[in-house]
Design goal:
This protein has 416 residues and is α+β, with helices and mostly antiparallel strands. It contains 15 helices and 16 strands. It is 37% helix and 21% strand. The longest helix is centred in the first third of the chain and has 20 residues. One of its GO terms (biological process) is histidyl-tRNA aminoacylation.
Amino acid sequence: MAALKSVKGTYDLLPKDRATHRHVTETARLVCERYGFNEVTTPIFEFSEVFSRTLGETSDVVTKEMFSFETKGGDKITLRPEGTAGICRSFISNGLQQQTPVKHYYYGPMFRYERPQKGRQRQFHQVGIELIGVETPQADVEVIAAGYQFLQELGMADDVVLELNSLGDSESRVAYRDKLVEYFTQFEDKLSEDSKNRLQTNPLRILDSKDEGDKEIVKDAPVLTDSLNESSLEFFNTVKKGLDLLGIPYMENPRLVRGLDYYCHTAFEFTTTTLGAQGTVLAGGRYDNLIKMMGGPQVPGVGWASGVERLALMAGEDSVELPRPICIIPISAAQQDEALKVAHLLRSNGYIVDQGYSGNMKKRLNRANKANAVAALLLGEDELARGAVTVRDLESGEQNEVSLDGLVEHLAKFKA
């Protein structure tokens, strides 16, 4: 019988990988809490309409990448491909309009049916924040600052570039859309099939095309900045002024767009070249019409999401160490019961303890070294008769006999 395998596009997070992930997510949580964002968790699956209505029936995520299924009761359900829609659905479901501004932080697995590659899997993880209920540019500045601080505390600020653009308000976007349609119509016969379809449904998404032929045509397309009205320009300038005040470096990228209809004003991405080709590690923007589009009240929002796998790759497995235990080694089977009691005592006092379960003393010491233990407690018949154990510092090799009564205090220097 063939051995069972993991499903394509999924992978196991073994202890060292999980520790790197935890380092990333804990850094995010602590930074976000400092900025006033509190953690929430929404369900891993939602009614499919939560995503199809918000991401757009014609978007790649909806048409090609969603894991959708029908329940026994006939409900159409989708595993969440991103976090924002679920957070906004939760805002509506829980009647949080009276509590604005609402500041949420989240972490969890997302699911997209796409070709697995390094740093991109069918089950992946994101951290993100959403600030709901503030329409002023101050919210955008604060959200971007939180993202920058997060990357800074991971030691990645020098390896990323903040790219910034404005999508303007709906009036500016309509004016820009008209210019795009006029421009791309000249080259309609040269566009890819996807882009031909987008020309009718959402021409902004042609700017995001990965097709090489499309990219050449896009090079000379009109830029959105030229279509911004006065109020949109003022909003964008206020965001830039705020970032300047905080000393957060950025680069304006007039080609940076969000293809979804609910995005407006600020769009931003932190990109890096350390993972090979230029890659986005954290991205976000303002979405003033999303909650209304979902059937809720007209409430503005702004936020970002970041892929944990990509950040973990950038951090590298050497960025964290697994906890280092104290190993307890009975010299013979006769001391096993005492070893169990000592282990329990130390664990109750906050120590990380590993037991050598079997084998002679040499084998157990080898296991202690493999576990990267900080110390070994040797329990021999004579020492226990005196109410003591031998403590060996596995870094220095120094060895002392310590009374059981004073053991907890003596080991304080080995506490994680």
